[in-house]
Design goal:
single chain, about 325 residues, alpha+beta, Lipocalin, Nuclear Transport Factor 2, Chain: A, 10-stranded antiparallel β-barrel, 17 strands, about 20% helix, elongated
Length: about 325
C-alpha cells in the first residue's frame, strides 16, 4: 500500500513539473507576430518605394531596355529581394535589410558570374545611399531615389578612396506594363522583350504628352510620322511638337488601360483605351477613346510611325485635340 501511495505521489509531482515547464517555455518563446512587429517601423520600410515589377532603361538612352527587375518583400517584410535579369545575359540578386542595432541599411549583391558586393548606408533627404568596396577594392556608391516615372539608380566608382568619383551606371526603373505577352507565352524571349520595349516606349510617350515634354516626344516619334483625324486631316510631327511647346493643354489625366501589344517582325501595334482630362487655355475637357499606335524597328531603335484613334459615337472632340491622337467614332 505504501508503495502504491509513493508511486501516485511521484506521478503527481512529475505532472506538476511538466505543466510548469510547458508554461515557462510558452512564455519565453517569441511568437510569430512579435517577429513581424520587429520589422514594422518606418525605418524598416524606407526602401519600399523600390518594391515592384520593373523594366530598367539607360537614362542616356531612354528607349534602351537594359534589364527586367522584380523587387519583393520576403521574410515577413524584413528583407527586400531584388531579382535582376539583364538583356546582356547577366543575372543577379540582392538582399537589402535595415539593421536596427546599428541603424544602417545593408545590401548584399551576388551574381551568376561570381560577383559579390556588400554596401551599407542611410536613407536621407528622399534618397537611399549605400557605399562599400567591390572585389577590386574600388569604392562604389549606389543611390536610389523615387522619380515621376519610377525609381532612378545611379552608380559611381572611386579608385582613390572617395576623393574623385567616376560614372558607373545610370538607370531608371519603370513599371513593367501588362502587355499581350503576359498571359500568352511568346514564341521566343526576343519577341517578349520587343513587346515589353514597345509597351514601355508607348507609356513613355503618353507621359511625355501629359508633361508637354516636346524633347522626349521628338526622340520617340519618327520624322515622317502621320496622324489622321476623323475629318481626314493629316497632322505631322512638327505640329505635335508645336502643340506640346505651346503649353495650351494642362493634363490632369493622360493614362491608358486595357493595353495590348501585337508584334509582326519589325512592326508592332499597340491598342489601348486612353483617358484624357485637363484644361485647354483654362477651359476643362475630358475624353475617353481607343487608339492604335504603330511602331517600327529602325537601326536606331523602335520609332512611333503612325497613330489613329476612335471616340464614342455622338461625342465630339475638337480637331486640335487630334494633334495628339487622331479620332474616329465608335460605340462603347
Amino acid at each position: 500500500m505504501e508503495l502504491l501511495q509513493c508511486s501516485s505521489r511521484a506521478k503527481l509531482v512529475l505532472a506538476c513539473l511538466l505543466a510548469f515547464l510547458v508554461g515557462a517555455l510558452a512564455q519565453s518563446s517569441p511568437s510569430v507576430p512579435a517577429q513581424t512587429k520587429s520589422c514594422a517601423t518606418a525605418e524598416h520600410h524606407a526602401f519600399d518605394f523600390w518594391v515592384g515589377d520593373w523594366n530598367a532603361f539607360d537614362v542616356d538612352s531612354p528607349t534602351k531596355l537594359v534589364a527586367h527587375c522584380q523587387v519583393t518583400r520576403i521574410l515577413d517584410g524584413c528583407v527586400l529581394l531584388e531579382n535582376y535579369e539583364g538583356t546582356n545575359g547577366s543575372h543577379g540578386e540582392s538582399f537589402s535589410i535595415y539593421d536596427s542595432s546599428r541603424k544602417v541599411w545593408h545590401q548584399t549583391w551576388v551574381t551568376t558570374r561570381g560577383e559579390l558586393l556588400e554596401i551599407e548606408g542611410q536613407f536621407a533627404n528622399g534618397e537611399m545611399v549605400l557605399t562599400g568596396k567591390n572585389q577590386q577594392s574600388e569604392l562604389v556608391r549606389g543611390t536610389w531615389k523615387p522619380v515621376d516615372e519610377g525609381v532612378r539608380e545611379i552608380g559611381v566608382k572611386s579608385g582613390d578612396g572617395g576623393k574623385t568619383w567616376n560614372p558607373w551606371f545610370d538607370i531608371v526603373f519603370r513599371h513593367a506594363p501588362e502587355t499581350a505577352s503576359k498571359p500568352q507565352m511568346a514564341a521566343s524571349d526576343d519577341a517578349t522583350s520587343d513587346k515589353e520595349i514597345v509597351a514601355a516606349l508607348d507609356t513613355e510617350y503618353q507621359e511625355a504628352v501629359k508633361r508637354n515634354d516636346a524633347v522626349t516626344m521628338d526622340k520617340i516619334v519618327a520624322d515622317d510620322f502621320p496622324l489622321v483625324s476623323s475629318s481626314g486631316t493629316i497632322y505631322r510631327k512638327s505640329e505635335l511638337l508645336a502643340e506640346a511647346r505651346s503649353g495650351r493643354m494642362a493634363y490632369e489625366h493622360q493614362e491608358d488601360s486595357e493595353k495590348t501589344v501585337r508584334l509582326w517582325g519589325d512592326t508592332a501595334v499597340v491598342t489601348a483605351k486612353l483617358w484624357e482630362k485637363g484644361t485647354e487655355n483654362g477651359k476643362p475637357f475630358e475624353y475617353k477613346l481607343w487608339f492604335s499606335d504603330v511602331y517600327r524597328r529602325t537601326p536606331t531603335g523602335w520609332k512611333y510611325v503612325f497613330a489613329q484613334s476612335a471616340y464614342r459615337s455622338g461625342e465630339s472632340i475638337p480637331d486640335r485635340h487630334c494633334l495628339l491622337k487622331g479620332a474616329e467614332s465608335f460605340e462603347e
